Amino acid sequence: MEKKASMPNRERFVAFCRGERLGEVPLFDWFYRYWADTPSEWVKRGAPKEISTGKGFREYFQLSHLHGLEEVVSEINRADLKADTTVQGPGLYHPTPPIVPVFPIRVIKEDERHRVETAYSGAVVEVSKEFPWRMPKYLEYPVKDWATWKEYKKRLDPYTAERWPKDWWRFVEKRNSEDAPTMMLMAGFFGVLREWTGMERLLYMFYDDPKLVEDMMDQVLYLILGAARRVLHDLRIEAVRFWEDMAYRTGPLISPDMVRKFMAPRYKQVTDFLHSHGIDIIHIDSDGNVNELIPIWLECGINFPWPLEVAAGNDAVALRKKYGKNLIMAGNIDKRALIESKEATYKEVTSKVPYLVKTGGFFPGCDHVIPPDVPFENYKYLINLLREINGMEKLPE
Amino acid sequence: MADLLKSIAQNVQKGDDKQVVELVSKALKSKTAPLDILEKGLVPGIQALGKCFKEGTAYLPEVLIATRAMNRGVEVLKPQLANVDVPNKGNVVIGTVEGDMHDIGKNLVKLMLESNGFKVDDLGADVTPDVFVSAVKGRKVDIVAMSALLTMTMTAMPKVIDALKKAGLKPKVMIGGAPITREFADQIGAEGFAEDCVTAVDEATRLVKG
Fold first, then answer.
1. Percent of chain B surpassing pLDDT 70
2. Which residues of A are less than 8 Å from B104 in CB distance?
3. Which helix (H) or strand (E) holds A282?
4. Does any CB of chain B come closer than 8 Å to the CB of residue A220?
5. Which of A51, A87, A271, A373 could pair with A301 in a Cys bridge, judged by C-beta atoms 3.0 to 4.6 Å apart?
6. Chain A residues closer than 8 Å to B107 by CB
7. Which domains does chain B have, with CATH numbers?
8. In chain A, what are the domain boundaries?
9. Which residues are bridge partners to A252 per DSSP?
């Protein structure tokens, strides 16, 4: 698909991360994920129907596959809930932290515009009927105190059978034989806690009951290390990802001092374990302005942030100048430019991508999953621009 | 008395609600005027914390615990303030726009505005333009504050502004949220823009003064 495609995809992905293959744009599908309603909106507006499935989308845009290990329930992205899209979203935009078993969905009340229901996560949410894929309003969270937490944590055991694909060895054989770089997905130490307690309650807890915060973090540590032991023993893994979403428009949701105190020692335990298994490509998903977090992440061995939202003040060019090749980066193509026009997209891409791919270790993509208000034509134009940098032909009309 | 008020301010800033309650009770017992306790003790405390937030030495947890400490102090004062003319900095109607269910940022802005002397009517999330209009009609509303987290929903903001105009209503409009910029605010005719809950207080203050 891409230039120099003779190198196997797994090795090629690692080479890009290591800052090799300079000047070439990596085009892996993980960095081109989309909101659940984006393909259907595009098809409604005349895009080819084939983009409606993940495989069809990947093939249409000729993207290489980077496999996020959603089959092992260790993060919010999880394959086990995706079959049931009738009542709620598939989990991606309605985060269901890695609990097994999930809570049953029960509709509590509804009117013309909204439906109040219990979610898989145990939260009570209000969903927009018009936009069911969008993030709901959270009315109640499952973890309120030590008593509710003690019950909840029973669902966070790495050794629960349902957390793993049914025929593990068959799954292992299939995955290991496929030439798709594979990324283990791990809960982080902030994002899932916020999903369990709600943000305000969690932020108060850092002061009011820090031991409870630490106990939740320790359970995450137990879960992800337990899962990682089995995954890394049996599967070929190229990278690991933490899901955090711990920043907003102007900075982190908690102070760098708190990150160092509460999170860094636990990150370090995980990354030391990963390093001992030869994994040093450690990705982290956090929206918002992450400039104050990056140096702490790097100290902890976490070296690959996404999505580097432009509106929140993240600038991949400046970050490259500051951190050099120590930092692998993904995203940072401003969604607002993609929404605006091809001209704005051109300006956005040419102002950063050539420099960043020449210095290596950059996976350009929309600075979050692609929203449906990005026109299909502009998105295709983006992919063609990136292909042009690679000296590849345009996608077929 | 000055020391006591200073101590109240310091404990608000630190977010020590128990100390604040104790000190406010002590100040009342020592016959300090309730309005002085509010304006020379509690309010300077929350303002000092706001300054730290802007300088990058305080973050959201510190904002929350300081706001809580202030509110606990206000609760102690409330019965004494009933017959006092407490200055209201302005009336604000706030909501997340239609199609958007996110309310964390909006709630934080509401909390900070209230702690800084504004009266806030919270319309919730996924608020349609006509609900904003109804909340403003026939009342003295200084500011309509709108929040949107998504590029898809920020487009609902100009619809609210149009609806207010069509209804002949002229409150100042302030907007915020992840994809919102000052340029976008200018483009749609919103007089105010805030990038976080602390600058929202400054912006609201500027709007009511202007």
1. 100
2. 199-200
3. strand A282-285
4. no
5. A271
6. 200
7. 2-81 (1.10.1240.10), 90-209 (3.40.50.280)
8. 9-83+142-389
9. A247
Question: pLDDT, tens digit, for every residue of A200-235?
Answer: 999 999 999 999 999 999 999 999 999 999 999 999
Q: What is the pTM of this model?
A: 0.92
pLDDT in tens, B66-118: 999 999 999 999 898 888 888 899 999 999 999 888 888 999 999 999 999 99
Q: Find, in chain B, the residue whose alpha carbon is nearest to that of A289.
A: B178
pLDDT at A41 over 70: yes
Secondary structure letter of residue B58 according to DSSP = -
Pairwise CB contact (< 8 Å): A137 & B126: yes
* Cβ distance of B195 and A250 shorter than 8 Å: yes
Q: Among partner residues A207, A249, A373, which is closest to B151 by beta-carbon distance?
A: A373
At residue A145, the 3 state secondary structure works out as: coil
Q: How far apart are CA A393 and CA A385, in angstroms?
A: 10
Q: Nearest chain B residue to A206 by CA: give it.
A: B61
Cβ(B146)–Cβ(B173) below 8 Å: yes
Does the pLDDT value for residue A261 go beyond 60? yes
Q: Which residues contact A18 (CB under 8 A, 6 or more apart)?
A: A360, A361
From the CA of A207, how many Å to the nearest CA of chain B? 8
Chain B residues 30-69 within an 8 A CB cutoff of chain A: 56, 58-62, 64-65, 68
Task: State which fold the A9-83+142-389 domain adopts.
Answer: TIM Barrel (3.20.20)
B33 Cα to chain A: minimum distance (Å)? 31
The per-residue pLDDT for range A152-192, each reduced to its tens digit, is: 999 999 999 999 999 999 999 999 999 999 999 999 999 99
